[in-house]
Design brief:
The protein is α+β, with helices and mostly antiparallel strands and about 650 residues long. The chain has 23 helices and 15 strands. It has helices at about 1-10, 40-45, 50-60, 65-75, 105-125, 130-145, 150-155, 165-180, 185-200, 205-225, 225-255, 260-265, 275-280, 285-295, 310-320, 325-330, 335-360, 365-380, 395-400, 415-420, 430-435, 460-465, 480-490, and strands at about 410, 425-430, 450-455, 490-495, 500-505, 515, 530, 535-545, 555-565, 575-580, 585-590, 605-615, 620-635, 640-650, 655-660.
């Protein structure tokens, strides 16, 4: 997303022509999000992903403002979903049409009206404390938005334009409430139209939410014989349908495979109805529904009318090939459901609060319970849930990036792309590894060999656990290591720290990550060890050197490990290295993932060298195991992807490597 804005800010004459970047496709061929164009002036001044995160956080937080205004309107009893009769707004003091039309009244009628106005005014004064309490409750509902774990999940999971939807939609709904008043002012009408267009600009599938909303508003207007609102919503429906069709047409034209992402999601629907029902009625889909409703204490189910806004987004997820699950509310997808959930919650809260107030005589108990409940959900639903991501060495990465010229072209691991996004030409390692764009839509081709390559080789373990098992990428995965090996032949190692390596094209370097030979290298320990008659460890070298310096701690050490391994038979699996000194454990990609064991040739010897930061050791040896790992990617505490290893198929027993 950051790369797209950078491209647009520099090449605004080619907004729809695509880009050379992290995905190497026209971004609008994946999602049509023209609202991003509105941020170009700001982004031109500060081309950084930090700006995008600030804007996203700001708009999500400011959504509490229209939520407060909507809550105040609803709690004051002036609005219901669809009334059974054409009701006028409740008493609003002296500012009524009757009070403005007294010029031609007879004196008795004038005296009578004066008495009514005085009574109305006294009632308004007497109700001041009650109205004030309702405003305080409305403020509490706005506060609930700010602590809702689903909102924080949306904010933390990268930058996505869909995060702007709640702010825009809640303003749209507020002006809809104003339009229901008779007569509506031109200012309110203009604001309503503007926010309809802004919502549509967020993303192509937001049109489905706006369609559902306008249908509800149309039914409301028809039921109440509100001709003005009926005309407005009719035009709105026509415009929204036209916009929806146009946006999908643009996506299909710019998509490298003619709408391939959507065909990938839903091509399974050709199966029989029994399979479709099995796909819908799953524990994962139930988990998704419960997770979306839980922060609202399930009150949206009491007044579910506005939950219709979420029907199509729900169908989008449930009917996709992967189906639903907790992931829907752990990441940015929650933004598609929050408008429906919040509106249904406000109306459900009002009805429940009336019952609670009658039974317990408390205006604030229900609100207090929901606030406490939301805070209690944070460890399991919010950013505190999930596994902790491994601590990366930011100083090392930043130091490596500083070695790269600002205008240089790059191929980099996914985690480094935001730091490099201001560059004109940048490619993503995961797509290059597969040789395919997302969902295999088209080939991922480098326009030229990049000047630098920055790789975290731990990613190759993630590829083995994730890309090798996805339906669309599994067939492309086996050729990935050879593709990357071939590219790196023209590159030399500039720096290597903790499995993170910086390569430069045509750089003279005598360092190598691994080598293949038929001669025994000179390494101090020459004790052979056989891993289940498949791989033989012929010799190794192990050193741990304490590091000293201002930025170092006394417990910091540098581990130097060299291994020479010999395949004894062909292997169909890719094994990795597991190091364990009894206190610390580290998993390393065998041969850095560049030469996986499934491609080893019997008779050759592979020598691999590692250097890693390692905490202080209590023992004088490290256990070495080889294992086929099983697991995948999950969403971590800060909503970043975390490689999770569920288990390992060990190859033989562990061997103890002694320190030199």
């Amino acid at each position: 997303m950051d790369k797209l804005l950078n491209f647009l800010s520099k090449h605004n004459k080619k907004i729809l022509a695509g880009m050379v970047g992290a995905y190497a496709i026209a971004y609008f061929g994946d999602h049509f999000e023209p609202i991003l164009i509105l941020f170009l002036p700001l982004y031109y001044l500060w081309q950084s992903p930090i700006l995008l995160l600030i804007l996203q956080t700001m708009f999500l937080g400011l959504a509490a403002w229209p939520i407060y205004l909507i809550s105040a309107e609803v709690l004051n009893g002036r609005w219901e979903f669809i009334s059974n009769q054409n009701k006028t707004p409740s008493n609003r003091g002296t500012d009524t049409p009757a009070c403005r039309r007294t010029g031609n009244l007879t004196e008795p009628m004038r005296r009578k009206l004066t008495v009514e106005v005085e009574i109305a005014s006294s009632n308004r004064i007497g109700d001041f404390s009650r109205n004030d309490r309702k405003k305080l409750v409305a403020l509490g509902i706005a506060f609930l938005w700010l602590i809702n774990p689903l909102v924080h999940n949306v904010n933390l999971f990268e930058f996505h334009a869909i995060a702007f939807l709640p702010f825009l939609f809640f303003w749209l709904f507020y002006f809809y409430l104003k339009l229901k008043e008779q007569p509506a002012t031109k200012k309110v009408f203009s604001c309503f139209c503007v926010f309809v267009f802004l919502c549509l600009m967020v993303r192509e599938d937001v049109a489905f939410i706006i369609l559902a909303f306008l249908i509800i508003a149309w039914i409301d207007a028809f039921s109440n014989k509100n001709k003005n609102l009926l005309r407005i919503t009719s035009y709105g429906l026509l415009i929204t349908i036209t916009y929806c069709l146009a946006s999908f047409k643009i996506i299909s034209q710019l998509s490298p495979a003619g709408f391939s992402p959507f065909s990938y999601y839903y091509d399974w629907l050709g199966q029989d109805w029994g399979e479709i029902f099995k796909h819908i009625l799953t524990i994962a889909n139930l988990e998704m529904a419960l997770g979306l409703l839980a922060p609202f204490l399930f009150l949206p189910l009491i007044r579910p009318q506005y939950l219709w806004l979420a029907v199509i987004p729900l169908g989008q997820i449930i009917l996709s090939a992967a189906g639903g699950g907790a992931l829907a509310w752990q990441i940015h997808y929650g933004a598609l459901f929050l408008p429906a959930l919040v509106l249904a919650f406000i109306f459900g809260f009002k009805k429940t609060q009336i019952w609670v107030a009658k039974k317990i005589q408390s205006q604030y108990l229900l609100l207090a319970v929901i606030i406490i409940f939301n805070l209690a959900l944070w460890p399991s639903f919010g950013p505190f849930s999930g596994k902790a991501a491994p601590i990366s060495n930011k100083q090392v990465v930043n130091g490596l990036i500083k070695k790269i010229e600002p205008a240089a072209s790059m191929l980099a691991s996914y985690e480094f792309l935001p730091n490099l996004s201001g560059r004109q030409e940048i490619y993503a390692l995961n797509y290059f590894f597969l040789g395919k764009q997302q969902f295999g839509a088209a080939d991922y081709v480098l326009s030229k060999k990049p000047e630098y390559i920055l790789i975290n080789f731990d990613d190759l373990i993630g590829f083995d656990l994730h890309l090798a098992n996805l339906n669309w990428s599994a067939k492309y995965y086996p050729a990935g290591a050879a593709r990357l090996r071939e590219l790196l032949k023209d590159y030399g190692i500039v720096a290597l720290e903790n499995n993170v390596a910086l390569f430069k094209k045509n750089y003279p370097s005598d360092r190598s990550l691994y080598s293949i030979n038929n001669q025994q290298p000179a390494i101090s320990n020459q004790n052979e060890f056989n891993f289940d008659n498949k791989i033989k460890l012929t010799n190794y070298g192990l050193q741990i050197i304490p590091l000293r310096g201002i930025s170092r701690r006394e417990t910091d050490h540098k581990l130097f490990l060299s291994l020479t391994l010999e395949p004894l038979q062909p292997m169909g699996k890719d094994y990795q290295i597991i190091l364990n000194d009894g206190t610390n454990k580290k998993i390393l990609p065998l041969a850095y993932g560049l030469y996986p064991t499934s491609q080893w040739q019997v008779g050759g010897k592979i020598t691999i060298s590692y250097q890693l930061d390692w905490p202080v050791m209590e023992n004088k040896s490290i256990g070495l195991e080889l294992g086929k790992l099983y697991g995948g990617l999950e969403i971590g505490k800060l909503r970043s992807t975390v490689t999770v290893i569920d288990g390992a198929e060990k190859l033989g027993e562990a061997v103890k490597l002694k320190l030199e």
